[in-house]
Structure formats: C-alpha cells, structure tokens
Amino acid sequence: MSWAFLRDLLSGVNKYSTGIGRIWVAVVFMFRLLVYVAAAENIWKHEHDEFECNIKQPGCENVCFDHFFPVSHIRLWALQLIMVSTPSLLVVFHVAYRENREKHHNQKLYKNPRKIDGGLLCTYLISLILKTGLEIAFLVLFYKLYNGFKIPRLVKCDIKPCPNTVDCYISKPTEKMIFLYFLVATSCLCIVLNLGELSYLIFKYSTKCYLKRHVKKQQ
C-alpha cells in the first residue's frame, strides 16, 4: 500500500495547526505511520501462514485463525490511521474555501484565511472531536475483537470441523506484543494531544471573547 497520500495530507494539515497540532502530526507521521510501514507491516505480513495447530484436519486451522483473528491487526491499524487523519481534511477544505472565496470576490475578506478563528475555529474543533472519537472507538474495537491488548503464545480451539480441542500457536508473540503496546500507547498519546489542543483552543477563545466584552463594557 502506498502511504504518499496520507503523508501529503499530514504535511498540508501541519500548515494550519497550532503548536500542539504540529506535535500530533509529528507523532502520527514518525511514531505511527513510519513504524507501521517500516516494521509492524512486516511482522504481521505472514500471520496466517505462520499460525499452526497440532492437528492437520482440513479446515480446522482456518476456522481457528478466523475465530481468534476475525480482522487482521495490520489492516485494522491501517484503517485506523486513515480514519483518524481524515477529519483534518475538513480544515484543509475550509481554508481552501476561504482562499477561493477571496479570489472569486477579488478582495480581502479575511485578515488571514489560514488563521483559526470564526467558522474555521468551529471546523477545527469539530475535526479534533472527530479524531478523538475515532481514536477511542478503534481502541475499544481492538479490545473487544481480541479480548484485550495481548498476544497469547497458545490458543485452544474446539470449533468444528476440529474433532476435539486443539492447541494452536501464534508466531513471534513477544515481538507482536511489543509493537501492539507501542501502537496502543501512541494512540493514547494522540488522544491526550487532541484533548489538550481542544481545551487550549476553547480556553484561548473564551478568554478572548470575555476580554472583548469587558472592554466594551468599560467603553
């Protein structure tokens, strides 16, 4: 899979972000996207082929693998990366709308089309809420699908067509566990950054509005 489009999206978003938003972009790009492409993708590349059960009953190994891994970890991570980055497009589109509107009217309508205020502030806040919600939703989905954030060395399976309870072994469980914890930790870090940026923007513009009202009352 080519990740160039996601890299370009993150680069574009970086132009319009606050300081905390730029840290979020750096975490997503360096500690999630690059780790995914450079290492994690290869670790889970042959997960089905390396899943072994101590019986050769036709179909048994396949149904056991499907039961314990209903969705591939790596594909779910890829979907998570795409989904949590997509809300940032709202900000990019809003800035493009402002710039095109100025060109259409051939006059200066905004002090700075890229400045986070007015309607763009609302769009930015919505994108942060969506990103946070999606991060949490995917963490819950991971937890529910795999019964926790763990990779067992041995799983016992008694699903038909297996004739009895069989032992199945997952390849490189320790290595997979390390990357699983790392990716979950970076996802939690992104949630904290999003909530921090959300709180910062709300506090900043609430204070700004309060000061404006206070100045008007003084006048």
TrEMBL record:
One of its GO terms (molecular function) is gap junction channel activity. It is a multi-pass membrane protein. Gene3D superfamilies: Gap junction channel protein cysteine-rich domain. The chain crosses the membrane at residues 21-39, 77-97, 118-143, 178-203. It is found in: Cell junction, Gap junction; Cell membrane. The keyword Membrane applies. One of its GO terms (cellular component) is connexin complex. Residues 134-201 form the Connexin cysteine-rich domain. Keywords: Cell junction, Cell membrane, Gap junction, Membrane, Transmembrane, Transmembrane helix. It comes from the Eukaryota. InterPro entries: Connexin (IPR000500), Connexin_CCC (IPR019570), Connexin_CS (IPR017990), Connexin_N (IPR013092), Connexin_N_sf (IPR038359). Residues 42-75 form the Connexin N-terminal domain. GO terms for biological process: cell-cell signaling. A connexon is composed of a hexamer of connexins. Belongs to the connexin family. One gap junction consists of a cluster of closely packed pairs of transmembrane channels, the connexons, through which materials of low MW diffuse from one cell to a neighboring cell. PANTHER family: CONNEXIN, GAP JUNCTION BETA-7 PROTEIN. This is Gap junction protein. The gene is Gjb7.
